[in-house]
């Protein structure tokens, strides 16, 4: 168990060092997210008086689209020089590699979320900087990174992986998107927690399902 | 000598096309086996199966006494692979690449630092240890690849066309290194097209053709004789008019 944790830490550390050197994933995700939020802000302002009902949807659609850029980069970086084979040669269970890659995606997407949240709070004039929203955000990002890493691995073996990733991932992520939007709206509207707690439960279920599936299926995806 | 690898009746299909058809191969410590054969003979596929990167559709594989198909993670600790590609992260330095792979093998930090330094010095990369791998020449990348493959001290070394693209000096260095590793009691299995210097020290040649072992040679493994045998094998594939 200790060795597995060390191996996961080694993969995460390596990905962070590579990202600090190249700044490819986070820069692309962040620029996309900021552009999307600014464009939503201008576009929606023309037709609505209040952003309140739209804010959770804009936040999550932006985050999911931006996250896809990072997911794509995460796996394609391993394909350069066939580095993925180097990972697969390590004396560890394949689930360790999945966990390392997914955890890196959680960190990168969380970083982007933390940076765009204050921007959205200002532009949309919403109380997004509150612990409840952060919890929903954390659950959503963890679930999305789990499903995204699994599906990005699946798409990586296809020629048009940049096209296939969103086509495969977005339908799968739809339940998570719905749950995250409703749970975020619940906190913004200051509803009693009991009213939207099941949606947070759905986020948790999504995490369990896709991290378990990733752990079990990653081996077959990388070897096929 | 101990039996380090035993592959029995390995079969592999790509779709409906058989790539390997009942290949059996054994390797003992101190053996240097050359895997020869024309393009498409199945050399790379066989090496990937032996390295546990790919599962065969049939057959058994035992590496250092453990069932490599049932417990591949145990077997991997005994395998070093030098593949076509370097498996090096272009934006990590040589030292960072080796430190990363060493961590994956569970080598403790102090020991790992010592091994990385030894490996870099031995491969004449110490002075370039801080440079990103993307700035390395083909020969330097190949030396880094070999350093990575040997970092965890594996008794079994698998090489896929390791001499491709190397200049004479690098090729001579690699050839000497392989003989030294065999002398230490390791088993080396090398897929190659080249029948010159790369075969120095080879103790057995296995010729693959059409996914099967066509011939196994143990004596008189001179480049001329192997070239003649390879020509014979290839000529059977030549179109008839």
Summary tags:
heterodimer, A: 224 residues, mainly alpha, B: 241 residues, alpha/beta, Rossmann fold, 2 domains, 6-stranded mixed sheet, 4-stranded antiparallel sheet, 33% helix, 26% strand
Specify the biggest β-sheet of chain B.
6 strands, mixed
* Dominant shape of chain A: globular
CATH class of the largest domain in chain B: Alpha Beta
Number of domains of chain B: 2
Q: Which structural category fits the helices and strands of chain B?
A: alpha/beta
Shape of chain B: globular
Strand tally of chain B is: 10
Number of helices of chain A: 8
Derived from helix and strand composition plus strand pairing, the structural class of chain A reads: mainly alpha
Report strand order across the widest sheet of chain B: 6-7-8-3-9-10
Can you describe what's shown?
The complex is a heterodimer of chains A (224) and B (241). Chain A has 224 residues and is an all-alpha fold. Chain A has one domain (2-223). Helix content of chain A is 84%, strand content 0%. Chain A has helices spanning 2-22, 25-45, 55-79, 83-88, 94-123, 131-156, 161-188, 193-223. The longest helix of chain A is centred in the last third of the chain and has 31 residues, at 193-223. Chain A starts with a helix and ends with a helix. The relative contact order of chain A is 0.14. The model of chain A has no long low-confidence stretch (mean pLDDT 92). Chain B has 241 residues and is an alpha/beta fold. Chain B contains 7 helices and 10 strands. In chain B, helix 3 (94-104) packs across helix 4 and helix 4 runs antiparallel to helix 5. Chains A and B meet through helix 1 and helix 4 of A and helix 2 and helix 3 of B.
């Amino acid at each position: 168990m200790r060795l597995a944790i060390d191996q996961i830490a080694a993969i995460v550390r390596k990905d962070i060092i590579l990202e600090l050197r190249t700044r490819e994933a986070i820069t692309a995700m962040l620029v996309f997210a900021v552009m999307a939020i600014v464009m939503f802000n201008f576009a929606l302002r023309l037709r609505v008086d209040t952003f309140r009902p739209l804010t959770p949807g804009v936040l999550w659609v932006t985050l999911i689209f931006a996250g896809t850029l990072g997911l794509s980069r995460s796996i394609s970086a391993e394909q350069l020089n066939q580095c993925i084979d180097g990972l697969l040669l390590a004396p560890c269970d394949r689930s360790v590699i999945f966990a390392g890659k997914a955890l890196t995606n959680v960190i990168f997407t969380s970083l982007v979320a933390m940076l765009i949240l204050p921007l959205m709070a200002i532009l949309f004039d919403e109380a997004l900087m509150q612990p409840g929203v952060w919890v929903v955000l954390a659950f959503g990002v963890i679930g999305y990174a789990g499903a995204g890493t699994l599906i990005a691995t699946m798409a990586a073996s296809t020629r048009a992986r940049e096209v296939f990733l969103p086509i495969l991932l977005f339908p799968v992520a739809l339940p998570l998107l719905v749950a995250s939007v409703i749970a975020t709206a619940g906190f913004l509207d200051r509803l009693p927690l009991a009213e939207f707690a099941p949606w947070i439960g759905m986020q948790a279920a999504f995490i369990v399902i896709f991290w378990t599936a990733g752990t079990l299926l990653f081996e077959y995806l990388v070897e096929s | 000598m101990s039996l380090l690898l035993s592959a029995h009746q390995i079969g592999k299909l790509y779709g409906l096309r058989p790539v390997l058809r009942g290949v059996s191969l054994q390797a003992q410590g101190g053996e240097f086996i050359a895997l020869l054969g024309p393009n498409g003979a199945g050399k790379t596929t066989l090496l990937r199966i032996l390295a546990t990167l790919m599962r065969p559709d049939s057959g058994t594989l035992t590496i250092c006494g453990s069932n490599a198909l049932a417990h591949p993670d145990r077997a991997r600790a005994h395998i070093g692979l030098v593949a076509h590609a370097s498996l090096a992260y272009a934006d990590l330095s040589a030292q960072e690449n080796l430190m990363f792979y060493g961590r994956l093998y569970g080598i403790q930090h102090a020991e790992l630092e010592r091994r990385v330094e030894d490996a870099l010095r031995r491969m004449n990369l110490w002075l370039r240890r801080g440079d990103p791998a993307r700035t390395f020449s083909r020969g330097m990348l190949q030396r880094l690849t070999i350093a990575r493959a040997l970092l965890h001290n594996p008794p079994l070394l698998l090489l896929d066309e390791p001499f491709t693209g190397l200049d004479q000096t690098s090729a001579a260095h690699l050839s000497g290194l392989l003989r030294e590793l065999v002398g230490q009691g390791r088993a080396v299995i090398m897929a190659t097209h080249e029948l010159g210097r790369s075969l120095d020290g080879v103790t057995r040649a296995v010729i693959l053709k059409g996914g099967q072992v066509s011939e196994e040679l143990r004596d008189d493994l001179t480049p001329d004789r192997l070239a003649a045998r390879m020509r014979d094998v290839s000529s059977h594939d030549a179109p008839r008019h």
